[in-house]
Amino acid sequence: MGIRLKLMRxxxxxxxxxxxxxxALAFALIILVGSVLLTLPAASRDGVxxxxxxxxxxxxxxxxxxxxxxxxxxTQWSTFGQIVILSMIEIGGLGFMSAASVMVFLLRRKVGxxxxxxxxxxxxxxxxxxxxxxxxxxLFGSLSVQFIGAMVLFFRFLPQFGWQxxxxxxxxxxxxxxxNAGFDVLGNGNSVIALNHDPVVLITLMALVxxxxxxxxxxxxxxxxxxxxKFSVYTKLVLLTSGVLILGxxxxxxxxxxxxxxxxxxxSVPQKILNAFFxxxxxxxxxxxxxxxxxxxxxxxxxxxxxxxxxxxxxxTAGGVKTVTMVVLxxxxxxxxxxxxxxxxxxxxxxxxxxxxxxxxVGIMAALALFGGVFISATSPVxxxxxxxxxxxALATVGLTAGATGNLSIAAQILIIIYMYxxxxxxxxLSLGFLTGNRAEERFRYAQTNLLIG
Length: 454
Hints:
Layout: H1 3-14, H2 19-39, H3 52-63, H4 73-76, H5 79-94, H6 96-106, H7 113-123, H8 131-178, H9 199-214, H10 216-225, H11 233-257, H12 269-282, H13 298-310, H14 323-337, E1 343-345, E2 348-350, H15 352-379, H16 384-395, H17 410-436
Antiparallel strand pairs: 1-2
């Protein structure tokens, strides 16, 4: 029995609430507090309360680092409201445990077993050894990268918008990009489409998204080991898969949108390449739009939905089923197609339990996405393709929309709120369930039966 499983069993004996329940309740509490703050008249630019439902939708989207909004962030919310949203993005992106640990470290208090276990779960690591060091590294690295991104954007915005707007826009968009939230405060209601010709802005946002989407554990290994051969199998898979998805997505978008006059058709070749890479990066979880998603070709929307569903990597600010989860599933399919029982990669065997976990997560997410697409199209004046796009975007906490968000019925809005919450909290809960589930029913087996498959 692994150390993580032993500690989880110990936790369950000593506590009424499991780590998964604590995470779920903490996120729900943050959303509730944020919703109340956003309903205040001071949170809106016109001084009139927006109402609880729009505030709940926005608070859920911010805390779950999704980016779907009923109102444009730059025009609807006052400076106070934007600060509330930014705070929820930071807490939701890094995890409430990371935010809480700041006070522990500043006060130099001893980190107890419960705090260490919550840190391990928040960072998606299997061992308790070194988890405090890793948490400190995550905080230092995250804040440092966000600061650098904010400074680059500040100096880029400064000549055109003045120091006040440049400073706020730099900070807000750096945090939003790093946390993979996709919120913007440009005030035009079109995300960063107005800046899709600016390589400094797009490359900075892409760098922030990619770095955060790799995951905290990967950062730690890359900095410590500094050589690909020394990396763990997990880190190798994350780096290779992320590279393939970014490059492959960019190539597909170039092919599908090259002549589309509504998106990239009128751009120069360098601009097309830049925006294809930006779309490939942001669509996996960040939610910034360099082109109007509603005007993409049907093929591009299909590619986007696949990339959104895959998402980033475990232990990161990204959503989706996660890169390695999808790789494990594909390796299993490849092994079965060759008639093999075991799944191997880099001369290592992947356990059958891990394969089943991957199949479960992908299956649940795909089923929920399909149900969401059907439900939204049935209850709102939105086509099925755009409804499915919206459902996948919410589940994978991406935040891109093909124009459906503003046309959602009240029932569809509630479903999207649930999906955003599940996308941020539910996958983690499932992962913990795989680890701590009751195996008592597996102590005996029924007789096997033969079924026709395929």
